[in-house]
Amino acid sequence: KQEVTQIPAALSVPEGENLVLNCSFTDSAIYNLQWFRQDPGKGLTSLLLIQSSQREQTSGRLNASLDKSSGRSTLYIAASQPGDSATYLCAVSNYGGSQGNLIFGKGTKLSVKP
Amino acid sequence: EPEVTQTPSHQVTQMGQEVILRCVPISNHLYFYWYRQILGQKVEFLVSFYNNEISEKSEIFDDQFSVERPDGSNFTLKIRSTKLEDSAMYFCASSEATGIIGELFFGEGSRLTVL
């Protein structure tokens, strides 16, 4: 059974710092991995999708990497800003499933201090 | 930018009552989903829907739950007889495709409180 783990559970950094959020998954047979942002009491905003054949994706200050064989992904945030404060979730889509059945981690709660 | 919209944003109901949560997926999307998130816990898959039928459902999605696409735009989740443990945030999502390129887009959620 696929398990997704995110470390750390919470992270507090000063503004301007570069940071890395980690995601690991137990079964490497995935279609893709998606990173989301969730603000308190709000929905999930898709940040990046990495296909299983890709090694990384970039969007602005965000860069996500995927090492499928080791079951790991990282989300790198450059020059962090207070507006980046949110919970970051990663989710994998299992190979052989309905392909919309995402398995989520519990998230990393990021706080960026001005 | 196209988005998934959900109503109501918050619903309070008595145990045993029926609840319908509504969603309008992104217009050119073909695949629709419901997820839920109990406070402090992970987001969990409930059901996927394509071509007017359920593609997959989780163990959570028992006989008390049903989904429907009553017209060309709405996608609904019905809970027939709510229980206390159904209290959660329910998210609707949609995608244009599935598989390796299937990126899901989520709505803002409907918070259900069962008293």
Distance between the termini of chain B: 37 Å
Which sequence of SSEs, written as H and E, runs from N to C of chain B? Answer: EEEEEEEEEEE
Counting DSSP E segments of at least 2 residues, the number of strands of chain A comes to 11
Overall SS class of chain A: mainly beta
Question: Cα distance, first to last residue of chain A?
Answer: 41 Å
* Residue fraction in strands of chain A: over 45%
- How would you describe the oligomerization state of the chains in this entry? heterodimer
What is the string of helix and strand elements of chain A?
EEEEEEEEEEE
Instruction: Please give the radius of gyration of chain A in angstroms.
Output: 14 Å
Beta-strand share of residues of chain B: over 45%
User: Biggest interface pair, residues each?
Assistant: A-B, 28 and 30 residues
Number of strands of chain B: 11
Anisotropy-based shape of chain B: globular
Arithmetic mean pLDDT of chain B: 92
Low-confidence segments of chain A = none
State the share of residues found in helices of chain A, binned by percent.
under 10%
Poorly predicted runs of chain B are none
What does this structure look like?
The complex is a heterodimer of chains A (114) and B (115). Chain A has 114 residues and is an all-beta fold. Chain A is 0% helix and 59% strand. Chain A has no helices and eleven strands. Chain A has strands spanning 4-7, 10-14, 19-25, 30-38, 44-51, 56-59, 62-67, 72-77, 86-94, 102-104, 108-113. In chain A, the strands form two sheets. In chain A, strands 2, 4, 5, 9, 10 and 11 form a six-stranded mixed beta sheet that branches. In chain A, a hairpin with a 4-residue loop joins strand 7 and strand 8. The model of chain A has no long low-confidence stretch (mean pLDDT 93). Chain B is an all-beta fold and 115 residues long. Chain B has strands spanning 5-7, 10-13, 19-24, 31-37, 43-50, 53-57, 65-68, 75-79, 88-95, 105-106, 110-114. In chain B, the strands form two sheets. In chain B, strands 2, 4, 5, 6, 9, 10 and 11 form a seven-stranded mixed beta sheet that branches. The N and C termini of chain B lie far apart (37 Å). The interface between A and B is medium-sized, with 28 and 30 residues.
